[in-house]
Amino acid sequence: MTLLGTLLKNRRARDAHSAWNLPNLQGPELLIVTSRSFEEGGLIPLEHTRKRIGGKNLSPDLTWSPPPPETTELLLVVEDLDGPISRQPCTAWCSSTRPARLPQPPTPRRAVGAPARHRSANLRSTISRGYHGPDPLKGHGPHRYTFQLFALSGETISTVDGTTLDRVRPRALLSSLTARVTARGRLTGIYER
What pLDDT score was predicted for residue 6? Predict the structure, then answer.
């Protein structure tokens, strides 16, 4: 795998295609997202990586500042901004929470398959449902994983072209959102193999 990562070293998804830069997800950057596991731009600890590479696949503890009062839903999107497979970042986790009054993420420190501790929906990621920790190609260089939180207000969607939200592909879901973004914030961590 080191050879493949090295060969693809200059091929990376682009920030321009991330959820953060979608026109319908623009809004004031009022939310402060933090983690006890890593600082902005810091290294993501091994326990948050995929089991295949020695991690525990636990989502990092995240906290954020309170969303605006009119917020009806929180949407957490985690993307690998440097994946070499596509021009679009790989969505490692997509989770939705209603109501938006939770002081913490919907499933903190949750391994894939573990029961959720809050009423939330683990939506489909690029791979499947639930959190998928960092697992970049060996030798590909550092990958940026961005934890993006969007506070939404207004009517939210329950299907996209007749497909339920737990089965719809992340890009289709993100581009279909019509609720107003009342606030947003993000935290970026780095992982390299």
Answer: 52
pLDDT digits (tens, 9 = 90+) for 72-104: 888 888 888 887 766 667 777 777 777 655 444
Residues whose CB is less than 8 angstroms from the CB of residue 152 and which lie 6 or more positions away in sequence, other chains included? 71, 72, 73, 74, 75, 100, 177, 179, 180, 181, 182
- Structural tokens at position 103: 């002081």
Distance CA 193, CA 183 (A): 34
Q: Which amino acid is at 159?
A: T
Give the rounded distance of the alpha carbon of 67 from its chain centre. Answer: 18
Is the pTM higher than 0.85? The answer reads no
- E-assigned strands of the chain? 33-35, 62-64, 73-80, 90-97, 120-123, 143-153, 159-160, 163-164, 180-191
